[in-house]
Amino acid sequence: MAERRAAARAAAEPDFLQFNDLACETVGGRVIFATNEWFAPAANLLKVKQEPPQFITSAFTEFGKWMDGWETRRKRIPGHDWCIIQLGVPGLIYGFDVDTSFFTGNHSPYVSIQAGCLDEPPTFTLDGDRTGMAASDSQLAAVAKLGSEVWPELVPVSELQPGYSDCCHNYFKVNFTHRVTHLRLNMYPDGGISRLRVYGVGQRDWSSVSTRQDVDLVALTNGGVCLGYSDAHFGHPRNMIGFGRAANMADGWETARRLDRPKELKVDQRGILQVPGWEWAVFRLGHPGVISSIEVDTNHFKGNFPDSCRIEACSLTPKEEAQCIRTRWESGKWQVLLPPQKLRPHHRHLYSEAELTLTRPVSHVRLIIAPDGGVSRLRLWGRPTPITASSDQSADTSLQTLNLQTHITACAANTEDVKVFNTVKK
Ligand SMILES: NC(=O)NC(NC(N)=O)C(=O)[O-]
């Protein structure tokens, strides 16, 4: 019953929720200006997903009811409230979730979102105004220099549902093909919003990166993105490419226990479990490159780390990528990058060049774990390879080519995979 409910919920959710949150505080997203923050600060909008909005009936501050979101005072002057958010990872935006959890009777009735595409980040941070008056003239003048009034609209003025649990997610799909660095979130005329999730794919400026410098090519901050997976029961694989080390198990990739594990377990000469099934996650690198070292971190996974892992890689054109997504990544192009490795609990596994079996540039990788379990971080260190017009991977860096429709297919396929996984052995 619970599974059926989860499947129905997943079917109703938009596909863009599979992408990365480019504004979250953990990737460096921050609010640089808010017209008013009387009841609750706008910084709450960007809290990490693992900290869902709370409501504490008995919690009050000297300003009023404590709320876990951004809440302005009831406006008694002309205008509307708005704030400016600097994305932690500039990139292409595919959709928003404006979450109004627990704002009932004080939620913002209308919202719109504008995009800033700035070459130079502003050098100031302005504190939100808690006095209940309008932001000062000098604050507004500084913000006006950003041009926020004229920024293009990603979400036109739209009605918001209040924060009851069955309608608090207000999803907005976006069709905008420019790299976004900032957002202006407008509330009409005032009120509260608990969280803003900005789903997209990072776009790093690679011109400043030397081809002789090792970088984590799959990092979210460098434009890496998860394009498919077999199971994400407890944690999404995109968490593995997040910033720093994982805060806890929820900040990693964790699958359900596979039901096809043999009743009696056996190991081979290397001590690796002999099991019929495995779980997988595919990533596109932020830039094609030659991978020279790998980190697989099972931090926090102590009784539920995978027995072993291996990594495969390949180089795909956007057309080939679309085809792979349609066929659920069963393409024959995969080649072994890291042969099977026995894993340890709660441990940072480092693999050097000598242990890797591919020396050519790749654009996609597939992490395979057996039989199931959790991995908190995956780091793929390597050198970005120069892109020539004739190169196979020429368009891979232009994430504008990401085909959302094929991604939807992959997500639908994964839902099916979860069903298949419960009854059929791989
Ligand atoms: N009970 C309330 O939530 N009142 C007010 N909001 C807060 N946070 O106190 C309001 O009406 O805007």
TrEMBL record:
One of its GO terms (molecular function) is allantoicase activity. SUPFAM superfamilies: Galactose-binding domain-like. InterPro entries: Allantoicase (IPR005164), Allantoicase_dom (IPR015908), Galactose-bd-like_sf (IPR008979). Coiled coil: none annotated. GO terms for biological process: allantoin catabolic process. Residues 28-201, 223-384 form the Allantoicase domain. Belongs to the allantoicase family. NCBIfam families: allantoicase (TIGR02961). This is Allantoate amidinohydrolase. It comes from Lates calcarifer.
